[in-house]
């Protein structure tokens, strides 16, 4: 991992007595694509605004490249932001929009012209210099917003749900565009979203947040495959979260049946939560399964069938390319490495959230 | 059939509304001094009007007061809108209510209150007091026309300007103000119009010997109606009409896309 560029130290923030961030600590590295992921109201946008300088934290420090910038106003920070609703200056042309930051910094005209050309090329909108923002589509406006930010050569680009207003197809295209731009620019991206698919596709590191706390930090793979608690498991993708007991290392009692697993170090006879992804639940003939159940629902989803199987008093969510009709008796088998063991949530808050969702 | 009835009804309404003004306008071109007889077309009353020094002075006062009061009220009103946007919703609603009261208040009450206030402050009545009172009653009209534009603003554009390195002042004048401009302009024109045709408040806050057009007409009419007054009234009506048309056209003009400027 490259060197640390930004450190958020013990950041707390409340609005009108409502705690939004509680002693948040986060390190962001150079050239990293970090995504702050969480449901609305989890504090992810506030975190981004604190980074940008638009919101002051009640306590804590923002360290940028070794310097404390907590009290530095946004116009003096070496970061640029791409706002959710583009925030283009509607009375200026595209070129004037992109030139805005450079003109403020009194750059020469030839430098500015070069930069505009370079930025428009980067976002694939060459020749749009003299158009007005309102004559562009949402996706194009968002590209201009990115161009306007990157011409200032920030070390970090902050993106606040930039794809939120675009339709699905365009959103997927822009995800690849963003990854390409980030690689071309070689700068750090801090990206805020509530869309787990966006986070998994683009990020080097995902920070899952809920209720002002960081729930888990990790690579997309580790967040998806090894969620640390029920909230993360539930928020990232579909999953079966089942209350279970760890009998001993590598053996867990799920709904009264013993399953082999690969986790160790949870102690003996400890209550735990188990996460099994729907695509990891294998449906087989009843006599070959570890436990038996009946298919209760069936939906065709395109790539796979989504089924619900009632077994041992629990409704299992199953994704499979093989069809098992409603009412059919099936057996359930799960490979040991697909059973993810998690500690039971400690605070009541977390518990409440896990049940809510 | 139904349509014809509709048109006749509308025509009647406009007839009753504008017949008096039309009469006035026709009479202002009447060569005969009596109102009952048409003595041929003349612009004599208009030229006499422009030779009358007292009237010209009153015209000068009116224009001066209208321009200055509208200008000052526009600045104060726009600043008020910016401030109110930053407030919590509750305080903003209360403040908006308070600024609306002077518009609904009977002008005679506003006039007398201002007069009493100026007396208690020991101010000398004259152009200054008229100006102060006109600024006062103009501010709500400016707020009324700027506030809707303010609400349409994307709050992120201001932050985006800061983010790109602009100072608060630059961000406001380069980014926020151009978006407010149509509202500011129509607020200015509205204030100008209101000031131009105000009589009651001016009547109570002017000093002896200082007159605006409306108070001048009032004094002249008391002495007996001269045809010059028809000409003057016609001119005021047309000026106000043009200004009102401008006010109504200002927001519409903004919708058409501007030609791209070369950088």
Give a concise summary.
The complex is a heterodimer of chains A (357) and B (263). With 357 residues, chain A is of the alpha+beta class.
Structure notes:
The complex is a heterodimer of chains A (357) and B (263). Chain A is 26% helix and 35% strand. Chain A is of the alpha+beta class and 357 residues long. Chain A folds into two domains: 4-225, Rossmann fold, CATH 3.40.50; 238-356, Nucleic acid-binding proteins (OB fold (Dihydrolipoamide Acetyltransferase, E2P)), CATH 2.40.50. In chain A, helix 2 (94-104) packs across helix 3 and helix 2 (94-104) runs parallel beside helix 4. Chain B contains eleven helices and no strands. In chain B, helix 6 (127-152) crosses helix 8. Chain B has a single domain, classed as MetI-like fold, CATH 1.10.3720.10. Chain A binds chain B through residues 52, 54, 73-76, 79-81, 83-85, 87-91, 93, 95-96, 99-101, 104-105, 113, 129-132, 134-135, 145, 148-149, 152, and chain B through 154, 156-157, 159-167, 170-171, 174-175, 178-179, 257-258, 260-263.
